[in-house]
Each structure stands twice: as C-alpha cells, then as structure tokens.
Amino acid sequence: MDIDTWLIYGLAAIGLSLSPGPNGLLALTHGAMHGRRKTLWTIFGGSVGFIAVIALSMFGIGALLQTSLLWLTVMKWLGGAYLVWLGVQVWRAPAIGAELQAAATQRGGWSLFRQGALSAATNPKGILFFAAFLPQFIDPARSLVIQFVIMAGTFAGIEVLTEFVIASTAHRIRPWLQRGGKRFNQACGGVFVAIGAALPLRA
After folding, report:
1. Residue 18 CB partners (closer than 8 Å, separation 6+)
2. Any idea what DSSP says for residue 169?
3. Of 31, 44, 92, 100, whose CB count within 10 A is highest?
4. How far is CA 87 from the centre of its chain?
5. d(Cα 79, Cα 25) in Å, to the nearest integer?
6. What is the pLDDT of residues 137-166, one digit of tens each?
7. How many angstroms separate the Cα of 86 from the Cα of each of 83, 147, 175?
8. Nearest CA to 15 among 196, 194, 188?
C-alpha cells in the first residue's frame, strides 16, 4: 500500500472510529460503569470483532476480484453511494445520550471482552460499511494478505486508542455529547459524504 493511500485510509478510519456507533457507546458506558482499565477488555474485544469483519469483507472482495476487475469498479461506485447514504443518516441522527445504570454490576473481564467482540462482529451495518469502504483502497496488483494486515492493524490500533480515550473521559464526554452531539454527528456525516463522493473517482 502506498503511503499516500495509507494516510487517506488512516484519516477515514479515524472518522469512522469517532462517528456514533455501538462500540463507541459501549466504551462510553463501560468506562463510566467500570473504569478505563477494566474497559480495556471491552475495547480489545471490539477490535477482535472488527478484524474478523474486515477479514470477511476483504477476502470476499478478493474472491470477486479474481473473477473480474470490473467488480472492483462496480463495488467502488456502489460503495461510494452507500457511504454517501450513511453520511446522510449520521448527519440526521439525534444526539447521543448514554443511559447508565444507577449501580454498575460487577462483571468479569472475559464477559466484557465477549460483549465488545459480539457488538462489532454481529453489527450488519459494520459488514456493509467495510464492504463499501475497503474496495476504495485495495490494490488488486498487490498481495491481499499484506493489505489486510496493514488495513486491519491500522484500524484496530485507531479503534483501541479512540475508545480508550472515550472510556477514560466517559464522565466528561457524556454531557458534552448530549449538548453538542447533533453538531458532532453532522461533522462525522459530512466526512462520510465526502469520502463516498471522492474516493470512487480515484484511479
């Protein structure tokens, strides 16, 4: 993967990690309920789930590419349209308001890990997103395995860092999201619309 492509991918991955989603909300609530250190179990579980989804998406795309390069172009344009639609949905979404339990129940680390992993791996929107997102960056002339390692590792690292920051400042972030969450959603939605409109035009 070229360095400029990787940088664009990294910026897009940061936008995805910061956008409203079940794993970000889970890190927020677990951070407030269990503390940032214990919430690392949730965060690492979510990263494993995302890596599984990325693998499913990338190697499914790779199978299509072996059939015809025309599919890559088709998937880029369909994926771009989906990203624009997703951006509009995020733009219109109401502000995040995390409802926390009055008293947090004690839960084991593996229980939090499983919840994070299942939240990422079983979200159908995540599979659709990566199926739309990843073709914009795949180079069919290069090793799909190496590209998977780079893309999955980059996204997992960004996701862990972002969710750890969210969990660490859960009590401060939650009131801010309730007050300014609508503008935050609009900013994230605008990022998705820009990505969806611009990336299919790249060579």
Report:
1. 24, 162, 188
2. T
3. 31
4. 13
5. 25
6. 888 788 888 989 999 999 999 999 988 988
7. 5, 25, 25
8. 188
The length of the chain is 203
DSSP state of 200: G
State pTM to two decimals.
0.67
Token pair recorded at residue 171: 């009590």
Q: Which residues of the chain fall short of a pLDDT of 70?
A: 20-22, 32, 61-69, 71-72, 75, 79, 83, 86, 90, 93-107, 122-128, 171, 173-181, 184-185, 188, 192, 199-200, 202-203
Nearest to 140 by CA among 54, 61, 52: 61
Give Cα 168 distance to the centre of its chain.
19
Helix (H), strand (E), coil (C) string for 118-144: HHHHCCHHHHHHHHHHHHHCCCCCCCH
Do 55 and 148 touch, CB atoms closer than 8 A?
yes
> Between the CA of residue 201 and those of 80, 84, 192, what are the distances in Å?
9, 14, 15
Contact between 113 and 176 under an 8 Å Cβ cutoff? The reply is: no
SS3 197: helix
8 Å CB contact between 49 and 163: no
The CA distances from residue 112 to 39, 45, 117, in Å, are 7, 8, 9
